[in-house]
């Protein structure tokens, strides 16, 4: 064994280059077309592509460069569904298309009008219900599978709808709905629409019943025999799986563990479980580590998922074959099937041994007020280099802020840990994954708990000798970028530097400019306007920019509709007018999350240069 070379933390030669991080694809969803055929969507730069694989054949593209597969409601998701050899998918042009699995040209079945998501097809393959939005009016629409008729309004009247699903007999349609100012992880309702059919066979609603409410209700699904309707609700304090008997009208709770079986519905079409003929396969999240289980409606069985510690978009065929997107701290996302854990698609070139990467650890610490805070810790790791003393620390704050850092492959964490940084991904109070009460801690406290928990997490590692107190960096994007700016304002001198991607600088501007999905989000995170205007001013970094004294770099895309460019522009202008040094990079054509390989390469290269100048070699 070759002895490790002593080299300054943060300057180790890493097996992960900026070009490598930029070279991957994003796997969005996977579904079964039949017992031997998988269909999935992958994002390549900014274009979504439908891909199909049958048996051991090589995967093949179904859509070309002239069309981008993408759900157009909110943050996206719910891109497609498959029935009887036909894929029905949403495109970035706002249309719904049909495409035969065998190939051919995609055929639009609705005109270009608004945007669509989450198509669901009746089991007789005649009608499609889907989520439609136009001029901030959301609802469920209906069209025949061939597009021979004009699409019709089916169910409107709530601010938002999500996750529609047909009963096998077509007798019912279930879906999730909610109103402003709630978010889908606050208060939603599971609606059951009773359907009838006119003389032409077109479905219409005869009755609407609320099956579950009073909490965050998520992902309705009917059993294959049509007797049961399942869903997830966190009314007990954690997201648990429930079963509603359509014959007896009785509800039974299927899981009862202090772990999460749901997830915050940031996207359409998200799935945490799936039915087979014999029961339910479901995912469980315990402290950021995921596991797979099977419920035969009598008891729960734990299944072996090998190396994978994070799984999403589980898809189950009628015969019980399971596919999903899976990853681990050392394995980038893959499309795998449970039988033999066969790999169908890799999102990145996997040419790095796990021993070369940092192993993630779920940790907790005591916050400044004595409450427990959670996070994911990555120690510095490199097979070729070492260094005495405590390493520099990068504190990464997730977006949302209602989200969670989990035990998945993190390009950011590995990029920096393999260069000699310790990395702490903070799941501050307000994060999901630790029960509803923990999530609700951030209500009225955004800009406080996220900052305080980032600071106390860093102090916790310093006290254990795992981080250099003089070389602490805070980094985040979107809501995490807001926390970066707010931390530099309220804790000057604690962080050596801040790295901010499209962060919120002015809460007033965010309310005015953001998209419909989040336009009332701050009602719960900060307070309702105009009554809370003083608090909005206090919590907005832009009004206290003169307090920032630490090095700062800001990145922004010109097409960001969530946190528009004006947020970064006004922050940079204000800082520079006050003589505060700030590095600023704007990327043309990028939105809320960078996608272009050339953008990602420059982004990571710019961060390394910035940290070398302001942290590693700074006095």
Description:
- 15% of the residues lie in helices and 36% in strands.
- The chain is an alpha+beta fold and 619 residues long.
- Among the domains are: 5-18 and 352-616, 3-Layer(aba) Sandwich (Rossmann fold), CATH 3.40.50.1820; 42-124, no CATH class.
- Strands 30-31-34-33-35-36-37-38 form an eight-stranded mixed beta sheet, with helices on both faces.
- Strand 26 (310-316) and strand 27 (322-327) form a beta hairpin.
- It is globular, with a radius of gyration of 24 Å.
Helix vs. strand class: alpha+beta
Assembly type of the chains comes to single chain
Tell me the name of the CATH homologous superfamily of one domain.
Alpha/Beta hydrolase fold, catalytic domain
Given as residue ranges, the uncertain stretches (5+ residues, pLDDT < 50) are none
Spatial strand sequence of the major β-sheet: 30-31-34-33-35-36-37-38
Q: Kindly identify the CATH topology of one domain.
A: Rossmann fold
Q: Give Rg in angstroms.
A: 24 Å
Count of strand segments? 38
The CATH class assignment of one domain is: Alpha Beta
Strand content: 35-45%
- First and last CA, distance: 36 Å
Count of DSSP-assigned helices: 10
CATH architectural group of one domain: 3-Layer(aba) Sandwich
Mean pLDDT: 95
Shape: globular
């Amino acid at each position: 064994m070759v002895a490790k070379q002593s080299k300054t933390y943060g300057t180790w030669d890493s097996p992960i280059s900026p070009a490598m991080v930029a070279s991957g694809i994003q796997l969005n969803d996977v579904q079964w077309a039949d017992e031997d055929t998988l269909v999935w969507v992958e994002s390549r730069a900014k274009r979504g592509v439908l891909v199909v694989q049958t048996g051991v054949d090589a995967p093949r593209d179904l859509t070309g460069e002239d069309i981008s597969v993408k759900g157009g409601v909110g943050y996206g998701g719910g891109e497609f569904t498959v029935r009887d050899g036909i894929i029905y998918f949403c495109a970035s042009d706002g249309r719904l298309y049909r495409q035969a699995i065998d190939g051919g040209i995609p055929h639009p079945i609705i005109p270009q009008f608004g945007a669509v998501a989450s198509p669901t097809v009746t089991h007789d393959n005649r009608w499609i219900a889907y989520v439609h939005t136009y001029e901030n009016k959301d609802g469920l629409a209906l069209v025949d599978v061939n597009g021979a008729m004009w699409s019709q309004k089916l169910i409107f009247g709530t601010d938002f709808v999500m996750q529609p699903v047909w009963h096998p007999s077509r007798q019912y349609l279930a879906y999730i709905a909610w109103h402003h100012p709630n978010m889908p992880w606050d208060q939603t309702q599971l609606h059951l629409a009773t359907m009838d059919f006119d003389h032409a066979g077109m479905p219409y609603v005869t009755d609407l019943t609320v099956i579950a409410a009073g909490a965050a209700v998520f992902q309705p699904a009917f059993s294959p025999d049509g007797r049961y309707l399942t869903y997830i609700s966190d009314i007990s304090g954690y997201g648990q799986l429930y079963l509603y008997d359509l014959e007896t009208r009785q509800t039974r709770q299927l899981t009862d563990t202090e772990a999460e079986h749901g997830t915050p519905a940031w996207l359409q079409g998200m799935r945490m479980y799936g039915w087979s003929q014999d029961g339910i396969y479901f995912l469980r999240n315990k402290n950021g580590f995921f596991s797979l289980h099977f419920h035969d409606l009598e008891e729960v069985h734990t299944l072996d998922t090998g190396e994978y510690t994070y799984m999403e978009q589980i898809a189950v065929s009628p015969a019980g074959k399971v596919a999903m997107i899976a990853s681990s701290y050392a394995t980038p996302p893959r499309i795998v099937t449970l039988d033999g854990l066969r790999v169908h698609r890799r999102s990145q070139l996997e040419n790095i041994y796990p021993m070369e990467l940092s192993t993630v650890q779920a940790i907790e610490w005591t916050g400044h007020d004595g409450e427990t805070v959670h996070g994911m810790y990555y120690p510095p790791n490199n097979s070729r280099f070492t260094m005495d003393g405590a390493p520099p620390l990068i504190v990464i704050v997730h977006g949302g802020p209602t989200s969670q850092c989990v035990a998945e492959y993190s390009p950011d964490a590995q990029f920096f840990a393999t260069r000699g940084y310790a990395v702490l991904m903070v799941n501050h109070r307000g994060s999901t994954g630790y029960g509803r009460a923990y999530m609700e801690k951030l209500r009225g406290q955004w800009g406080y708990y996220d900052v305080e928990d980032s600071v106390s997490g860093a102090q916790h590692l310093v006290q254990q000798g795992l981080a250099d107190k003089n070389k602490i960096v805070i980094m985040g994007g979107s809501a995490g970028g807001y926390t970066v700016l707010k931390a530099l304002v309220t804790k000057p001198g604690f962080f050596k530097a801040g790295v901010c991607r499209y962060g919120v600088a002015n809460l007033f501007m965010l309310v005015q400019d953001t998209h419909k999905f989040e336009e009332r989000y701050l009602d719960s995170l900060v307070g309702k306007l105009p009554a809370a205007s003083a608090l909005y001013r206090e919590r907005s970094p832009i009004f206290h920019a003169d307090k920032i004294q630490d090095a700062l770099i800001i990145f922004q895309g010109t097409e960001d509709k969530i946190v528009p460019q004006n947020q970064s522009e006004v922050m940079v202008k204000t800082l520079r007018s006050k003589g505060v040094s700030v590095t600023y990079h704007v990327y043309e054509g990028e939105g809320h999350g960078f996608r272009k390989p050339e953008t990602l390469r420059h982004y990571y290269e710019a961060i390394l240069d910035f940290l070398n100048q302001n942290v590693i070699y700074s006095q």
